[in-house]
Design goal:
mainly beta
């Protein structure tokens, strides 16, 4: 018989896809969310593909991002800034609360400025989970795969940081809050310094 009518779309689930989704970029999907709360959380699901996000994406509170699998969904940015926390320094920036990023690849290819990170968890962030991710950072003189200014939980994450002209750090923690690392693989290769894990509480 003829196909039935499509079922209702789940509330607070937004699809990013090259075609057929609600939006074609993560940045556009994030900008469309204006009413996320603890009682009204959102999930942004991203179809397979490589998504360029110039300037990076700031993740809002109570919004999760779910890809279609490592190496199936890639979010990338030639992100860089002249300061560690400058605008556009990271591909994904988390400054709010209650976020989970899962099942995708996150890449920064850096740029001419000093600093770059693939994921930045800001000092105001809370209840952040990074799960089932491939994270790659390259191209800057002060490079971090994951920059933690607050606590977070990282599980089943592979991180690679490589700088041909400066220092590379896989995970940089500069916070007194607790970070949990579970099943993490980190590689750091820098021209001047190479650190898989750097901890400097309170800096």
């Amino acid at each position: 018989g003829p196909p039935g009518s499509p079922g209702p779309e789940p509330a607070q689930v937004i699809w990013v896809a090259k075609s057929g989704g609600d939006y074609t970029t993560l940045a556009a999907a994030m900008a469309a969310i204006t009413d996320a709360t603890a009682n009204k959380p959102y999930v942004i699901k991203i179809a397979p593909g490589i998504y360029d996000e110039p300037g990076g994406v700031t993740v809002k509170s109570f919004v999760d991002i779910e890809g279609s699998g490592r190496n199936q969904t890639t979010i990338q940015c030639a992100c860089t800034a002249t300061t560690e926390l400058g605008t556009g320094v990271s591909t994904l920036r988390l400054d709010g609360s209650d976020n989970e990023i899962r099942s995708l690849t996150v890449i920064t290819t850096g740029g001419a400025s000093n600093f770059a990170s693939a994921i930045l968890v800001g000092a105001a962030a809370g209840n952040v989970h990074l799960d089932d991710l491939d994270i790659t950072a390259s191209g800057a003189t002060a490079l971090r795969g994951v920059e933690l200014r607050s606590g977070a939980v990282l599980s089943d994450v592979t991180i690679s940081a490589s700088s041909a002209s400066g220092g590379a750090t896989g995970v940089s923690q500069s916070s007194l809050q607790t970070t949990a690392l579970e099943r993490i693989t980190v590689t750091a290769i820098g021209a001047t310094t190479s650190r898989a894990l750097s901890v400097s509480p309170g800096s």
